[in-house]
Amino acid sequence: MLQLDHLVMGQGDFRLTANWSAEPGARLAIMGPSGAGKSTLLSAIAGFLVPTAGRVLWNNVDLAGLSPGDRPVSILFQDQNLFPHLTVAQNLGLGLRPDLRLSDGDRVRIDQALERTGLAGLGERRPAQLSGGQASRVALARALLRARPILMLDEPFAALGPALRSEMLDLVREVADATRATVLMVTHDPKDAMALGGQTAFVANGVVEAPVETVSLMANPPPALREYLG
Amino acid sequence: MGFSIPDRSVASWRRLMNTNLLAAGLAVVAIPAMAETPVLTVLTYDSFTSEWGPGPAVEKAFEATCACDLQFVPAGDGAALLARVQLEGAASQADVVLGLDTNLTAAAAATGLFAPHGVTAPTTLPVAFDDPLFLPFDWGWFAFVHDKTKLAQAPTSFDALAASDLKVVIQDPRSSTPGLGLLMWVKAAHGERAAEVWAALADNIVTVTPGWSEAYGLFLEGEADMVLSYTTSPAYHLIAESDDTKAAALFDEGHYLQVEVAGKLAATDQPTLADQFLAFMLTDAFQSVIPQTNWMYPAVTPAAGLPDGFDAFRPAKSLLLSPEEAQAARDAALAEWQAALAK
Amino acid sequence: MGARDMIGARLLALALLALVLGPLAAVAWRGAGLTLGSADWAAVQFTLTQAVLSALVSTVLAIPVARALARRRFPGRSALVTLMGAPFLLPAVVAVLGLLAVFGRGGVVNDTLAALGLPTLSIFGLHGVVLAHVFLNLPLATRMILQGWQAIPAERIRLAHSLGFGPAETFRHLEWPMLREVLPGVALVILTVCLTSFAVVLTLGGGPAATTVELAIYQAVRFDFDLARAAGLAGVQVLISGLAAGVAWVVLQPTAFGAGLDRQTALAAPKDWRRWADGLVLAMATLFLLAPLVAVALRGLPGLADLPPQVLPAAARSVGVALVCAVLSTLAALLVALAVARKAHPLVEAAATLPLATSGLVLGTGLFLLVQPFVPPMTLALPVTVLVNTALTLPFLYRILLPEARAMVTGYGRLADSLGLRGWARLRWLVLPRLARPLGFGAGIAAALSMGDLGVIALFAGDRQATLPLVVSQLAGAYRVEAAAAASLVLVALSFALFWACDAGGRRAAA
To answer: Are B179 and C173 in contact (CB under 8 A)?
Structure first.
């Protein structure tokens, strides 16, 4: 269980609080106006930002002091999810072993992940030779291989068209099912939140509200959300 | 006795160890014993020790007579030598310092680091020279060197040089011994008029280099008509390159001498050997090496005489300030020089 | 990485500070103080004038050259980029002789002027000093600025194309922000190098009006043995360069281009008159840099046939020193650059620039004073050479590495952190591949500069440990001008070969 215990995050004048928890396997969309602090929340959970107060717990273990790579987290950024100087297969390999000393078994798993994400045969390509959709698939394939219990996505598909985006969301669900991961996905689009299924946590006025069932939230949005949705 | 064999073997092990330790101990003792061939360390300038300088031949000749190891330590150029001696102070490893010139010996004597040499052998310097601390090993006349084929009528005095539109390159008196020598030359020849002479020369001086080799290089490249060097420079070209186009301009007012000297350090741990070296310095074995390696006049003309070319440019008059005069004149002369050329 | 790196970088910075300030303190202590004479202020003034002029002219002229190289593709471009390293690596005296063959009294330029009936030019004077410093430093500036151009991500360039940017807009939105980040560092490095330039200034300066601080230090140490004054002067040098570093640090604004996917997209190469302008700029720069190099080669060739036997072992010794220095200096600079790229740190920044500002003579003298009570300095000749060369080349590498290290940290730091890439794995799979180009370039510079250095170690040099520059100066001091020219050519060729091997290696690894 992911638990945000009286978490306070601050950068300069900016201050953001969160105090709620998410069940294992939960699908959470994080929505809110630009600059509200959606990415800040992900940064704090991933370990890039030290909270000013409060704790982030996973299964009752405080994550404070763990470096990002040691946390039970995989994260997809808005961009720069792949190292351009490494091949697709190497980028995936980093998810298994950061030193890339891959065993034959590892290689088999990489090939399987490629196949599963529709990238069969592209292992030797460099990221620059991929389309935007393919690059997103590689990043998801790596999350599949890492199989961390929390999967966070910071609008990684913002640059993709609607059809591709829904394909990617399908893939996210597939990866999450396969790894039984708790998903936190930042998005601007209520349709993405609906497609993800599960709950939505709304961020506004310095607070990340506790997640609510997306369907009921959209059916009966609170004032701030209504204003955001327009 | 069931233990006898192991016991014996332990004992023999011990013996083995002991002999080994003994051998090792002997070896440790043996290294210094071998190194006890006395070492004479001579601090000198780079070009003396180089393969093309007098160093190698002198080392061979002296080691043949002294049952010692003669080691030359290069300390940069002539001007760097005295600073090195002062830096090292009494803790110096060196026994003898070789290569100071008389413009620096007053300062060297004032350090109190040098001991009298006690050598009384006569020299063939063109001036009387008697210094209890420093013994000359070679000397030369400063002169402006030029190419005869490009400059048929060389000037015969500083005034004539200043009146001409010839371009000369000189060395900086603040970083090089020839540069300082030129400063003393003008002072010794013209005294009160020195500032005037420098002011007149200002438009002839193309540039001032940090050391002798840069200036000589610029001259050979054709950047200047004349360069401050020695009357023996043409001899190098004649002997080593069969090139007789270089000449030294003889000045009516006379030529300043550079007398290069050596001295014994008071803190030497090899005083006898140091004395022996200084005495050796004025013998034929040392002196005959000088002309064609250092391209200077030997302090004592060798039995076999001087090589061709060494008699080609002999000034009629030699100038030399005493070390004390040179020391006293230096700061004012330097200021004069700077003021005259900075305009 | 992270905290441990920062500690490493701080320790290294402290070590550098100790290496620079320790000998200075030792000289001041032995001289019982720091003093300056009134004549010394004139020297400070001239030193600053020539250094500022040299840095400005070199940096400004390098911009169009780097831009032309960045946006044009033509046969021989890669060779030209490599050539850009060459003059910087020349020993000062060799460079001066090469320049004289072109601009001197009997040089090509004046011969041409005379043939046309025009008045001839003299290279001696302040303008000659600046000319020589531009010759030596323009290539370095060009290469450093070119790295900046290459660091603009293709994505940003495509965005510019798609927005229909003309040359003016491209300059304003892409090139100017990059220049603002790169230029202060470039100018700072050149300024600092020129502050301590000695042989060039004295030889081409034309007389005592061209008196620099370094010359005053020479006089103080060698003739007057006035260590207090030497220490005072050296302190002034360090202070000036410290101030310059401070100014550069304030002016410097890291750009936020973000990272790209390493796609190859060239900058727009306008086809109008700018094409001819770029061509002209490149042709003139090539001629300016190449002509003196050719002269150096021509002077050296005749003597190559009977090179003195001492040259070979000395060359081997020099190459060994150069390789060790290159490795040490590259590692140290990488550590510092990575730490500063993560987190700005003025002390570390200053420490990484300071070694450039030290007077070689004071550094050597101070080290000598520090070492002498314990061991005969001669026995430390090679270690001291390695140590000093490593410290003196580190600032160049640091400046070369920093912009790209910043780009790497901004673009991929989080991704690497999130994947748990640390220690050797991070070095192997992130740092080395991403920084291969500047690492190769920097290692080449370090190796080649270490080949040429002489000044500092002269005090430590033993008879049997002569390096190649020492042999060259011995030959020149023994009238053997032809052999000296040949040995210089060997020195230059070896330096350049080392540089080329590292630089090309880095560029290949990055491709």
So the answer is: no
pLDDT of B20 > 70? The answer is: no
Would an 8 Å CB–CB cutoff place C461 in contact with chain B? Answer: yes
Q: Does C428 touch chain A (CB under 8 A)?
A: yes
A in contact with B (at least 3 C-beta pairs within 8 A): no
Q: Does B51 touch chain C (CB under 8 A)?
A: yes
Domain that holds residue B280: 39-139+259-298
Domain region containing A61? 2-72+148-229
Q: What are the structural domains of chain C?
A: 3-510 (1.10.3720.10)
Structural domain count of chain B: 2
Residues A94 and A30 reside in one and the same domain: no
Averaged pLDDT for residues C420-425: 88
Q: Chain A, 139-178: which have a CB under 8 Å from a chain C CB?
A: 146
pLDDT for the residue B187: 95
Q: Give C160→chain A minimum CA distance, Å.
A: 18
Put simply, whether A81 touches C (Cβ < 8 Å) is yes
Pairing mode, strands B226-230 and B96-101: unpaired
B285: tokens are 């074995």
Record the pTM. Answer: 0.80
Distance CA C248, CA C388 (A): 25
Token duo for residue C326: 């290159």
Nearest to C262 among A48, A70, A128 (CB): A128
In this prediction the ipTM stands at 0.89
Tell me which residue in C202, C203, C207 faces B341 most closely, judged by beta carbons: C207
Rg (CA), chain B: 26
Ranges of residues in chain A whose predicted pLDDT is under 70: none
C273-304 and C92-103 helices, crossing angle to 10°: 110
- Residue B169 has a pLDDT of 94
